């Protein structure tokens, strides 16, 4: 396609899923409730349309020298002289890459869901939420001002809440949904504060204008730092960074395709995207940038330790997601937009695939507990093959996708900060170990469950195969340096030079060795059984308890802070204040008035004749006094 | 003895005082209504007398009086209707016992 994409079609990228949402919610669900497949087809075709348009947009951008597209915006909210908020789109490479990631993963997940959600009574509702989520996510990556971004930011949070609590009749799901919503709200508060700080200091919410101010140094350094930290707080909430990571493992209560789309590939990456979008602000605030790097690096290893010991396959993947998101933050913090987003791009495909694989395993065995799996490679060959590819990819094995982005992050960490480099190197080892622990426990050995496992239907397998291809090749886009170049970084070189030349440096060999030893250890413990996992757990029992209790973070939040500090102290005190002081003042005023009223109400006998008598007496008194003194 | 304005005014005052006393002291709603009629009559006499003696060329007072008579008739009708309605519900026309709105 040579032609530049028309502006109206750019809008359609975002509007197509919205149309699907309205159509299903208002027409299909009420009138065609008996044919559930329709809503799936509508969503799939809408998302497929968005994907095609996104690809067209990509080719258009590649054909324009500036790699940007100006979309005329229109005014939305004008208050003369003070506020002028317009509705517009930012179309640059970052947007397009995110659009492609979101639409591709969304499309695969929607197709997969046709099989996974088959027969679920909430089938329509599921696709309503999924359409709305895709709309909101595309809106979030495309809009050009912070206010609208915040609107979509909250909208994806809402969809996440609705979808985690999709099976709301299960108390655990309802609870997890609430937890996710509340914890992310804590972060969103920082984002909102940052928006207000920027608005009151510069009077604009336009992202590109704010970038201009930040680059020109027109924002005070303290303001800039606080705004950047606020934005990062929002990002940390959405991307489940320490200390706001606690919601993501619980979010696994939702349907597995939801976890694949929202809690692995897209929404949790929105935090990373936000930092990338506002990167000029971070760039001019070294403190904020180092906070991003340290929190990211710490989260990466922190979450990985918990992933080592979980028995629920989805929880391992959840901790792995947190850990990888930490990598992305680290990449942003030490390397810049291109490196962080590149890992986001690769991670979206292989992590979505891992979740879809977990869902497929669950479809066959009706459980998520790996202790009741095993031996599935024989009955589920496709799931096994794709899951293995994704695991190799996330572990960072050359030449799969995960290797390329992880290597870049490690290289920039090495040049910036040795501590973070060491932490992330250890994380590479842990990542390989926990992923292959999953592989060996799930697919290796003998089957330990009671259900009769079976391979999933083609409607589920095909999306997994597509994602598996992407999980292999998505890293190659940057073998030439092309991906980074589009995001404004890096030098270009030929494909073969990048593809094989990387192996002439020592660093990739170190990370490959770390990953390899992780895989080897997992093999020794869970497949060959040279080392008993129980003895290891016993040997490191204090660490084991610490990890499997998730560092008591949930207890800290729920019991110590939630219950003891807030509920028992603060809220109880507030209640006392409310019932005694505030209610006391209100009731006191009322009581005083009633008392005064009681004392004078005898005068109101209700007898008109008596009133008349007083009127006459009054008139007489006036007349007499006039006669005497008048 | 020629009748002067003052004689009419004295008659009017006495009638008004009688009506006022009746209206304030009686308990029966019907008697109160009658007393009000007496007061209106007293006022009418004063009006006509003033008109005759003070501005003989004009008939303002007389016209006013005719209006008072009309309005008084209407008022008596409405008042009696209300009293009958109250009696049907409460079997009394003692105004001190009609105290539902009282605290």
How is the secondary structure organized here?
The complex is a heterodimer of chains A (about 625) and B (about 100).
Chain A: H1 7-31, H2 37-63, E1 68-69, E2 74-79, E3 83-87, E4 91-92, H3 93-116, H4 123-142, H5 146-164, H6 171-202, H7 207-216, H8 221-238, H9 247-250, H10 256-265, H11 267-277, H12 279-283, H13 286-307, H14 313-334, H15 337-365, H16 376-379, H17 381-395, H18 401-416, H19 418-443, H20 458-473, H21 482-486, H22 495-501, H23 506-527, H24 533-539, H25 541-548, H26 553-600, H27 608-629
Antiparallel strand pairs in A: 1-4, 2-3
Helix pairs in contact in A: 1-2, 1-4, 2-3, 2-4, 3-4, 3-10, 3-15, 3-20, 4-5, 5-6, 6-8, 8-11, 8-13, 10-15, 11-14, 11-15, 13-14, 13-19, 14-15, 14-18, 14-19, 15-17, 15-18, 15-20, 17-19, 17-20, 18-19, 19-23, 24-25
Chain B: H1 5-25, H2 29-54, H3 60-90
Helix pairs in contact in B: 1-2, 2-3
CATH architecture of chain B: Orthogonal Bundle
CATH class of chain B: Mainly Alpha
If you consult CATH, what is the topology of chain B? Helix Hairpins
* Global shape of chain B: elongated
Which segments of chain A are poorly predicted (pLDDT under 50) over 5 or more consecutive residues?
none
Side-by-side strand order of the widest sheet of chain A: 1-4
How would you characterize the largest beta sheet of chain B?
none
Structural class of chain A: mainly alpha
Main beta-sheet annotation of chain A: 2 strands, antiparallel
First and last CA, distance of chain B: 56 Å
Low-confidence stretches of chain B: none
Task: Assign the structural class of chain B, choosing from mainly alpha, mainly beta, alpha/beta, alpha+beta, or little secondary structure.
Answer: mainly alpha
Largest interface: A-B, 10 and 11 residues
